[in-house]
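Hey, sorry to bother you again with one of my protein questions. I've been staring at a protein lately and its backbone has me curious. I owe you a coffee for this, so here goes:
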Amino acid sequence: MNTRFLDACNQRPTDAVPIWMMRQAGRYMSEYRALRKKYSILEMIKTPELAVEVTLQPANAFDIDAAIIFADILPPLEGMGLELTFEKGVGPVIHNPIRTPADIAALTQPDPRESLSFTLKAIALTRRELAGRIPLIGFSGAPFTLASYAIEGGSSRNYIIAKSLMYGEPQAWHALMEKLSILVGEYLFAQAEAGAQVLQLFDSWVGALSPADYREYVLPHSARAIARAKEAGVPVIHFGTNTGGMLPLIKEAGGDVIGVDWRIEMADARKILGADVAMQGNLDPVTLFAPSEVLKRRAAAIIDPMRGHPGFIFNLGHGLHKETSPEKVAELVDFVHKYSK
C-alpha cells in the first residue's frame, strides 16, 4: 500500500510529499458528469455503489496518495429533522431553517449509524475496492459550518441570521452547537469504524468569525467533536478557510493535521502552529488555471519551506473548481511527487 499520506499524517518521513485534493471527485471530471446526467447529487450520495464509483474516479485517473469518500457535509442535518435539497443554479437549500430556540429544542439527536448508513456502507465498499492501494479519508462538516447552513437556509455571504442568533440567543446557540458536535463526533467515529483511515473536519465557513468569537462560540464544540473522533484511533485533519488569524485556536480545538488555505504562507503557518502538528495545504485552486510554469513555480514555493518537516501534505486551500482541466490536475500531482523526492 502507498503509505505516504498516512506517514505524513503521523509526521513520519516520506519518500515524496503526498498529495490529494479537496473536491477531487466531482464536476471537473467527464466520468462524474456522465453519472450526474442520470442521477441527482443526493441520489449519488445515498446510493452506496454510486458513491463508491465516484470516489474511485480520481483514484483511477491520477497518482494521488489518498481517496476521500464521495459525500456532502449537509446530509447529517436531515437526520435532525431538516429538509435538504440541491437546487440547480442555487446549491443546497434547507427548507425549514432554524430560527428560534424552539426550533433548536425540536431537533432530534440521530444515530449516524442509522441516519447516514449509506455513507458508512460506501466507505466499507470503497475500502474493499481500493484493495489497499491508497488510504481512504472520511469527513464531516464542523459544528459551526453546519449550524450556519441550518440557520441561514443555504449559502451566505455575511452570516447575518446565524450571527444574530449566536449573539442574541447564546444559550440556544450553545444548545444547537452541542447537538451538532455530538452528531459530528459520532459520525466521524462511525466512519472510522466503517473503514476510513483518516478523518477530516471541514469548517469551511469559520473564517467569517473573529478569533474572540471563535473561542467563545465555537472552539469548545469543535473540540468535543474532534475528541470523540480521535477515540477511533485514526488521524484527524482539522481544516478551515480564511483562518490565518486564528490558527492557534484551530490547533487548540484539536487535530493531528491542520489544514490551511492560500491566504497565509506555509512557512508563516508553520511558525504559528509549531512542529508538533502536521500541516496540509495550501495552493489556491485557481492556480490550476495558470500556465504550467506558473503552476509549478507556485507549487515549488509551497514545498520548499516545508522540506525537513515530515508532517506535510500537499493540497489545495479549498476544493477544485468545476472548470479545472483534468490534465492540469495530473500535471500538478506528477510535479509534486517528482519535485519533492
